[in-house]
Specification:
DNA repair, alpha+beta, Dna Repair Protein Xrcc4, Chain: A, domain 1, 2 domains, seven-stranded antiparallel sheet, single chain, 34% strand, 4 helices, Non-homologous end-joining factor 1
């Protein structure tokens, strides 16, 4: 493993985009929460936003937004993970305990404002997401879509080739005086695409 590799990036590359609806806004989300840090990606299929935050910034923002609360950075982050992860993973918000709103900034940033309750007092958090760089968009959206497109095209080509060969077989049967009754032909799909054609109930009658 590359010692310089970013564990959040590695995890997000393996993580699927999840559909979420926040404050009536439909988005796709890729959240990653570590022990003391998080990283999230969001897109509305027109723009892509991200935020990456480490432990020191978590503590600073927690104190900035929750001046009445006194808790350790670990306690703040644990509570944030507990209430935010379901919202960013397509889970249901529990009653009115967790509220989240979306605010699009004029400079292109996207802010998600979260409100919940911690130790009987209101707990506030803001996910301050900025437009993602082109390299990130390519890695998490463009390349996976191109790979899927190539895979589907390969399956289509296999199917076309299989149908062409079956047409040739049927024509050969007919030229040799055989009659094929109507039946059901199955195209079996394996993990690597089409594996073979299996006639389920075709009968060949010689003339």
């Amino acid at each position: 493993m590359n010692p310089q590799a970013d564990p959040a990036e590695d995890a997000l590359l393996q993580h699927p985009w999840l559909p979420v609806t926040i404050d009536g806004v439909q988005l796709l989300s890729k959240p990653w929460f570590g022990e003391t840090a998080y990283r999230i990606l969001l897109t509305d299929m027109q723009s892509v936003w991200e935020e990456k935050i480490e432990a020191a910034a978590v503590e600073k923002r927690s104190q900035e937004l929750n001046r009445r609360l006194r808790a350790s950075a670990a306690a703040f982050f644990s509570h944030l993970c507990e209430v935010a992860q379901p919202c960013l993973s397509g889970g249901q918000q529990t009653g009115g305990e967790v509220q989240m709103s979306v605010n699009r900034q004029q400079d292109g940033d996207l802010t998600l404002r979260l409100k919940s309750e911690l130790a009987g007092l209101p707990f506030y958090w803001e996910f301050r997401c900025s437009p993602a760089p082109v390299a990130l968009v390519c890695a998490h959206l463009v390349r996976p879509l191109l790979a899927m497109s190539r895979l589907l095209q390969s399956h289509v080509e296999q199917l076309e080739d299989l149908l062409f060969r079956k047409d040739e077989e049927i024509q050969d049967y007919q030229e040799n005086g055989a009659t094929l009754s109507r039946g059901t032909n199955l195209v079996l799909l394996g993990p690597n695409g089409i594996s073979h054609w299996e006639p389920a109930s075709t009968k060949m009658l010689t003339g």
